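I need you to check the entry underneath: sequence plus fold tokens. Let me know what the token row says about the fold.

>
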Amino acid sequence: MTLLLGGLAALCATALVFVHLPLPWASDDRLELPPTYMLAVWLSLLLAVAFISAYAWQVAEEARLLADALAATELVLAREQHLSQLDGLAAAAAHELGTPLSTITVIAKELERTLEKGSPHADDIKLLREQAQRCREILAKLTELSTASGPFDRMKLAALIEEVVAPHRNFGVAIAVALPPDRTAEPAVARNPAVLYGLGNLVENAVDFARLRVQVSAQWSGEDVTVEIADDGPGFAPEVLGRLGEPYVTSRGNGRPAVEAETGGLGLGFFIAKTLLERSGGVLSCLNRPLPQSGAVVQVRWARVDFEKPVGTPDLPGDFPGDPGA
């Protein structure tokens, strides 16, 4: 619109040079302006239009940049507010569900003891007890997210990945861990519950959607550390690929019909994992494998100094991912 208005003003000024009425004058002699004067007025009008247009363009651009920065800040604050609310809900859930899960575990053990050997319900009761115990372990993890590790509680990256992968190995999907052959400069990290939970959630999603195999690979250099989680499932739906990480956005459908009806979630797991990993300094990127391969790839990259810093070390201004000042 600025260019259109400026062009219209320049066109009108140019037309007035050639098509204009004579100025009213007291004497009978017609006032004839010198061509040099008319050219100077025409040039001054064009310069004024150009200056005003450039100034209006600059003001509008600064307003757009300010609006974008405000939107980015509001998004970061909204994410933090969502996570703060979920922290409170997690603590409440851990408190309220502890007693019922203990009761379920006790009853499942008693039923398991009373069943005769070879009973068709023995496997179901055993599965019920194991899943109740798993629920208790998940709630225990949620209550540990705000607990800082001890000063000597550090581990190598390979040990961190193994701890993340171990709970998800016996679910009918092979999980392979790929590390560089040269392990001399392997980074060491404090045992951060937020990083463990975030990576564990990504691995769990990969196992849920994979058909046969999940691969967790790691790379590092003197500047950064990268962990990549890939599966051979259906991949991310194209319509939500750009919105992954937002709350209440589910990522994809499951390729296994037996569990397809039970895996529809609210998208909060990926949102919580992404936010926790970003709080630790990580940057997430999601993509699908190139054709003819199928599957999803989630990559988490940290600056090595952020990955190896102790838990609870405050970030410098502008270090938070998504901060407009970063």
User: Anything to note?
Assistant: The first helix runs from residue 2 to 18.
